[in-house]
Amino acid sequence: MKKFSLLFVIAFAVISCAQAQKTQFSDAALSEKLNTLNHERVPFADILKNHIGKVTVIEIWASWCSDCVKAMPKLKDMQKKNPDVDFVFISMDKTEDKWNAGIERHDLKGDNYWSAETMKGAFGQAIDLDWIPRYIILDKTGKIVTYRAVETDFDKMNATLKTLK
């Protein structure tokens, strides 16, 4: 019985550590290149550097994702209530045309990038992407404050943004 209890405690500790809040992106994530609207490829690290000094919300989304589309009004409301926050949108759309159409259809205000690969691709794996929409909040120094939020977490995200002003 003691061995079983010990195994349970060890398993719980391993799972808890695996789900721990990250405070920075991995080197693999930072080196991944994303496409810009100008057809350039830029490392994720450079994208993040552009937002140092500002609280930043990153949304990973796709135009085909019904949960992403359903969350857009809440996202727009969050943008309206937080005009000093930068918003970065990273699309997981399968084609550039779908990505561009999604930006236009949803009138996405902020910086827009396209990963040009599926959620299971290198960038998705590097940020532990298991669901979209996925939201990541960075403080003014670029430190990750919220690593994994989904469309049901808007109240928590809004509360977090209030503390970061």
UniProtKB/TrEMBL annotation:
A GO-annotated cellular component: cell envelope
GO BP: any one term: cytochrome complex assembly
Cited PANTHER family: THIOL:DISULFIDE INTERCHANGE PROTEIN DSBE
InterPro entries in alphabetical order: Thioredoxin-like_fold, Thioredoxin-like_sf, Thioredoxin_domain, Thioredoxin_ResA/DsbE_sf
Residues spanning the signal sequence: 1-20
Keyword Transmembrane helix among record annotations: no
Coiled coil: none
Domain Thioredoxin positions: 23-165
Lineage: Bacteria, Pseudomonadati, Bacteroidota, Flavobacteriia, Flavobacteriales
Localization per Swiss-Prot or TrEMBL: Cell envelope
Entry protein name: Thioredoxin-like
Record keyword Disulfide bond present: yes
Keyword annotations of the record: Cytochrome c-type biogenesis, Disulfide bond, Redox-active center, Signal
Pfam family, one: Thioredoxin_8
Species this chain originates from: Flavobacterium noncentrifugens
